[in-house]
Specification:
By secondary structure, the protein is of the alpha/beta class. The chain contains 22 helices and 18 strands. It has helices at residues 4-12, 18-31, 35-41, 47-58, 80-86, 108-118, 129-141, 144-150, 157-164, 167-182, 218-228, 290-300, 317-328, 362-370, 385-396, 412-419, 424-430, 455-460, 497-504, 509-518, 524-533, 539-546, and strands spanning 88-94, 97-102, 121-126, 185-192, 196-203, 206-214, 240-248, 251-262, 265-273, 305-310, 335-339, 350-353, 376-379, 400-405, 431-443, 448-452, 468-472, 483-494. The strands form 4 sheets. The protein has a 7-stranded mixed β-sheet with strand order 12-11-13-14-10-15-18, with helices on both faces.
Length: 550
């Protein structure tokens, strides 16, 4: 990572362009950081993309999670101080060589030093730095003292706290969060089992195993997390919620933490808020169809009324809302949000965090906001009839309100509001547009192949005579999953005068759908089929949308 040919490799692989390289070189002259670190700070490339590319070009083995292949006994040959200072993780002896993980395979001096102190020839494999830190914490916390103490039941809280605050445990938790961020994970699951603790990351909507810890370390890790997230460590029989502001050398990140008791110990789930490195919360930077982008921009210019986004949890609604707020927010406009939680902070926008224990609910927050002279209000979610009624009244009295609901498609939101007890005429007069949204996985462009459809799939798409579709066969770049990242599909319904009258008259859902279809509205099904035809998503991903909407 310390030589210019490394940058040339990235350009050759089209991971960065010449403009980005020149900008990074100029910054390097001022900061004296490595070129790799500057590119990471600029967020033009992820650490994983960088390291996988290096591994391929330099013929090194790439190991995402080196902890899974390390032999604890090699710590007898390499001390913690040396390994930590050199940012390496000794793994095992293979074919008479000491194999170690590093994020800098061009650091030949460290290789020579390691060989001298161990007496072995060395062989490097490439791993992300966060997982190396994590492995160091696991390897060097596995001392006899810790193992013996961890097996003692009913230890005093003071004794537990001393062990929890020890450097290896603190580093292990910090490295776990850094590692999740580096692979673009949205959630970390820490799950106690009969014999071990499983740690899984949710990446692009899918959970996969990251590492397995000895059962004796479970209480140390969960207690550390509970301490830093403000939970009661003495309470292990009830669910608890907390929050963490995580900071490391190059990272500041907010996490929402939840614990729940199980017969085998407490399960912890940490949600990384606003951590997606692929998102800059701008309509121009989000990968969406230009026609949809134009419609979203048109919606953002509405002076008053309600815009609803609908879809299940994890469908990208918050990203779209934030991107619209970025479009709307100017020095001439007062924008206020009520959120639970505030996932990303923005300059020029007043953001209010819900605190139900203190009585600050969505409804209470919305009432208070209306006394703050806002032009635009964003509600994280309309959860009940009271919030829905206040939001609609705010829209009718001249405010532009953006919010979310959980329904399967756009027009179901109309029925949901009426079911909540809002009068149909009030829904009709306030609602300006409804957007249904989902996320589907993108096929990895590096290993994409075109295949003939199976007969049953041809029947599914017989109305458009679809005979071929792309699929990712799996490669190093996509961790052999066939996918890299996700892309949104949309269904946008504008409430025109005819639709407004139909809603006021409480027309059936079938009649509402017939009308919007006659106006040429593109439904979720149409948008996901477009992505198949463009080779951006697979039939497997498309089916998740096709079978979840009518």
């Amino acid at each position: 990572m310390k030589r210019l040919n490394f940058a040339e490799i990235l350009i050759e692989q089209k991971l960065i362009n010449q403009t980005q390289l020149y900008e990074a070189i100029e910054k390097q002259k001022q900061t004296k950081q490595t070129l790799g670190q500057i590119l990471l700070d600029m967020k033009v490339i992820s650490e994983r993309e960088m390291l996988v590319t290096l591994a391929q070009e330099l013929s090194f083995e790439y190991i995402e999670n080196p902890s899974s292949v390390m032999d604890i006994s090699v710590k007898e040959m390499v001390g913690f101080d040396f390994a930590s200072s050199k940012k390496i993780l000794p793994l095992h002896i293979r074919d008479g060589r000491l194999v170690f993980a590093t994020s800098d395979p061009l650091d030949f001096i460290t290789m020579e030093d390691l060989g001298m102190i161990t007496g072995f020839d060395t062989q490097a494999v490439i791993s992300p730095y966060a997982t190396i830190q994590q492995g160091l914490a696991v390897m060097y916390s596995e001392t006899d003292d810790i193992e013996d103490e961890a097996l003692v039941l009913n230890t005093e809280d003071t004794d537990l706290l001393q062990r929890v605050e020890s450097a290896p445990v603190v580093k292990m938790v910090n490295a776990l969060i850094d590692s999740a961020y580096n692979v673009n994970a949205s959630d970390i699951h820490i799950e106690p089992g009969q014999d071990a603790t499983r740690i899984r990351f949710r990446v692009d909507g899918t959970l996969s195993e990251h590492m397995v810890l000895k059962k004796e370390l479970h209480e140390l890790v969960t207690t550390r997390i509970k301490i830093v997230s403000g939970m009661n460590i003495a309470e292990k029989r009830k669910p608890q919620d907390g929050a963490i502001r995580h900071t490391s050398e190059f990272l500041e990140l907010d996490l929402r933490v939840s614990s729940i008791p199980t017969p085998l110990g407490e399960k912890i789930v940490m949600r990384l808020l606003g951590a997606d490195q692929n998102i800059s919360y701008s309509l121009d930077s989000i990968e969406i169809n230009e026609d949809i982008k134009d419609k979203l921009r048109a919606i953002s210019q509405v002076p008053n009324g309600i815009l609803l986004l609908t879809g299940p949890t994890g469908s990208g609604k918050t990203t779209t809302l934030y991107s619209l707020l970025n479009e709307i927010s100017t020095p001439e406009v007062s924008v206020v949000t009520v959120e639970d939680p505030v996932e990303k902070q923005f300059e020029g926008i007043t953001q209010v965090q819900i605190n139900e224990r203190a009585g600050l609910t969505f409804a209470a927050g919305l009432r208070s906001i209306l006394r703050q002279d806002p032009d635009v209000i964003m509600l994280g979610e309309i959860r009940d009839a009271e919030t829905a009624t206040i939001a609609i009244r705010a829209a009718i009295t001249g405010h532009f309100v953006l919010s979310t609901l959980h329904t399967n498609d756009a027009l179901s939101s109309v029925v949901r509001l009426i079911d909540m007890g809002v009068a149909p005429y009030m829904v009709a007069s306030s609602l300006k547009a409804v957007i249904a949204q989902r996320l589907v996985k993108k096929i990895c462009p590096k290993c994409s192949e075109v295949h003939e459809l199976a007969n049953e799939d041809k029947l599914l798409f017989q109305d458009i005579e679809l005979k071929q579709a792309s699929v990712g066969k799996g490669c190093e770049r996509c961790s052999h999953s066939g996918y890299t990242g996700r892309v949104a599909v949309f269904e946008i319904v504008f409430i025109d005068e005819v639709l407004e009258n139909m809603i006021s008259e409480n027309a059936s859902m079938n009649k509402l759908k017939e009308y919007v279809a006659s106006q040429g509205t593109k439904f979720l099904r149409d948008d996901v089929i477009r992505l198949i035809q463009e080779g951006k998503t697979s039939i497997t991903e498309a089916k998740k949308i096709l079978f979840s909407v009518s």
